[in-house]
Write a structure and sequence with these properties.
By secondary structure, this protein is mostly beta strands. Helices cover 6% and strands 60% of the residues.
Length: 616
């Protein structure tokens, strides 16, 4: 359990900036993911952050994991450099317990059960919405800890930019748009390359690089009284080099998704229909293998169809319901090279589907807000599951709103866990969670502030047993999150958040590995005429590695700046790890006989970047 005195001190320190208010700042942003339809963010009864394109440029980050790491309740653990293995922890839960969607489309590998965030090109992103807490009542399987919803560029901002820096880093990107009458189109494209750095100690003294080429497009047509049609897609390909305990490997990847959608508002009714295809292909090559060995190939195809209907009874009451269906198909190198002596696939089950229906009611009144959602999923491999979510919010004053919520969630085992011929378990049951949360939101003249207390209890947690994956574990996650966005305090804008999580294996009483108990992020920014200067501080407390060795705490400082050379031309500059801090992120290998660490993943040393951006 967390220390209440420390929490109280943290709250006092975080919110003390409110007394320096000089002017009223209003942030009116919409979110579409928490309840799957547009609502003002202050009406959403959940812990949520909306990250805009302006926020991405303000922070000066170079990839999606780095961006997410600046927000409350989110921790990123890298086992390597840019593009390499990255673990996402939302409130202490593992990567596979958070759902990632891009433009409303489920993405990621069905074999592993999660999305490789490093492969999502940052230049393609217009907005990211991070919802913390169980959301399975809206989205179905996987949303036990939260949802990361990524919205790609829509053409509102057009620019061309190029950046270069340490490790032969190059990033060139462009975003363009076109509108003619009822038709509109937007395009984004990018190229990113780095030679990388030597990511491990004690073995493979080499550079581990990364490359990503990507292209995206969005087309829309207004049919007038018949609604709006939209076609969009994103494509990326490249490679990533990495080190393992066996040696130097690399992965070639190709990923894309395509979506066709229709929406129409008709009086009190709002319809939304969409169909999509997402493909995730990887070829993993072991360079220490036999000559000519191509490596393992994995491919995930996911087809999805969904319909949602909203009905507005009154300005205060909305009912929303829908149905969705998705079909997953995996293939691997065994499938393409089958022989009588060799299995047709590395998986005993290669296809599965899920059908879901949900309905929810929402009341947004002056005295209180509330919503209730229930959902049923019918999974072809793991049967039926009911999930629900209940939430209520009460304005305590003109500036303070209290909220409370309780939700259930489940996750179907991945193909690797349930169907692989290499140590799977076809008797696995879905993982389940129960999530309770209390929160307080403050809207003051100085900015916005939020406090959240939560408890998430996991049952049937899948862990590696004596003979492969088993439902042997229970885990609990208890914590607190404090966040603040403070405008113009002493002339400087601040974004701060502090997170504490107690992540524990209930069977053993031990802390779960790779989870930092305490994280703190502080970003500041100041506009000086044509200059914008920003700085970020990130603290991570110590944690345990997979080998249960201690990984020390560390603090990183980053710096970024922008200078307007001309009206539409801006010079950009950034320094990551300004103090050149040496730190370890994970253990790569140990001596099997003694348990001594023989190799570890190191964090990136100081990196310097500079570039130009031309706004069209």
């Amino acid at each position: 359990m967390y220390n209440k005195t420390k929490v109280a001190v943290g709250i006092a320190a975080l919110f003390s900036g409110a007394v320096f208010a000089q002017q009223q700042q209003s942030i009116e942003r919409l979110t579409v993911t928490a309840n799957k339809f547009e609502q003002p963010i202050e009406n959403v009864l959940a812990s949520i952050d909306v990250i805009t394109r302006a926020d991405i440029e303000r922070l000066g980050v170079r990839d999606l994991p780095a961006l997410l790491s600046h927000y409350a309740g989110v921790d990123i653990v890298r086992s390597g450099g840019q593009g390499q293995s990255t673990s996402l922890f939302i409130r202490g839960a593992a990567s596979s317990h958070s759902l990632v969607i891009v433009d409303g489309v489920r993405v990621g590998s069905a074999t592993t059960g999660y999305k490789a965030l490093s492969s999502v090109p940052l230049n393609s992103i217009e907005r990211v919405e991070v919802i913390r807490g169980a959301r399975a009542a809206w989205y179905g399987s996987d949303a036990l800890a939260g949802v990361i919803n990524i919205v790609t560029r829509d053409g509102d901002s057009q620019s061309v930019s190029v950046q270069s820096g340490s490790d032969n880093y190059v990033n060139a990107q462009g975003a363009f748009a076109f509108r003619q009458g009822a038709f509109n189109a937007a395009f984004n494209l990018g190229y990113e390359h780095t030679d990388g750095f030597d990511v491990t100690t004690g073995q493979d003294p080499d550079e581990d690089g990364y490359e990503n080429q990507n292209l995206g497009a969005r087309f829309g047509y207004d049919l007038g009284d018949y609604g709006v049609l939209e076609l969009l897609g994103q494509y990326s390909e490249g490679y990533v080099e990495y080190d393992t305990s066996f040696g130097d490997d690399y992965t070639d990847f190709e990923k894309y998704h395509v979506q066709l959608g229709w929406r129409k508002n008709h009086g009190a009714f709002a319809h939304k229909l969409q169909t999509s295809l997402a493909q995730d292909d990887e070829i993993n090559t072991q360079q220490h293998g036999a000559p000519g060995y191509r490596g393992n190939e994995y491919s995930t195809a996911r087809d999805e169809l969904s319909y949602q209907l909203n009905y507005v009874f009154s300005p205060a009451i909305t009912v929303s319901g829908g149905a969705d269906y998705y079909y997953e198909d995996i293939s691997d190198s065994y499938s393409s090279s089958a022989t009588p002596e060799q299995p047709a696939s590395g998986f005993t089950v290669q296809t599965r589907n899920n059908k879901g229906v949900y309905v929810g009611g929402y009341y947004d009144g002056q005295a209180f807000n509330t919503n209730a959602v229930v959902r049923h999923d019918d999974h072809s491999q793991f049967g039926g599951h009911f999930t629900y979510n209940l939430a209520a919010g009460v304005p305590l004053s003109d500036i303070a709103t209290f909220r409370a919520s309780y939700g259930t969630a489940f996750k179907a085992p991945s193909f690797n866990d349930a169907s692989s011929i290499w140590g799977s378990n076809d008797a696995l049951q879905p993982e389940e969670s129960n999530n309770a949360e209390l929160g307080l939101r403050l809207d003051l003249q100085s900015g916005q502030y939020d406090i959240a207390l939560y408890q998430n209890q996991f049952d049937n947690l899948i862990a590696w047993g004596n003979n492969g994956p088993e439902n042997i574990a229970k885990a609990s996650f208890e914590g607190v999150e404090l966040s603040a966005q403070v405008q113009d305090m002493f002339g400087i804008d601040h974004q701060l958040n502090f997170s504490y999580v107690d992540a524990e294996d209930d069977n053993t009483g031990q802390a779960l590995v790779l989870r930092a108990e305490k994280t703190f992020n502080w970003s500041v920014g100041k506009q000086f005429d044509k200059w914008y200067v920003g700085a970020q501080l990130q603290y991570r407390s110590d944690r345990l590695s997979y080998y249960r060795t201690d990984l020390p705490s560390y603090t990183l400082v980053n710096l970024n700046a922008r200078y307007q050379l001309l009206r539409d031309l801006t010079f950009t500059f950034g320094v990551d790890n300004l103090t050149d801090k040496e730190y370890i992120t994970n253990v790569a290998a140990t001596d099997w006989s003694t348990g001594e660490v023989t190799s570890a993943y190191r964090g990136a040393e100081r990196k310097v970047y500079a570039g130009l951006q031309f706004d069209l």
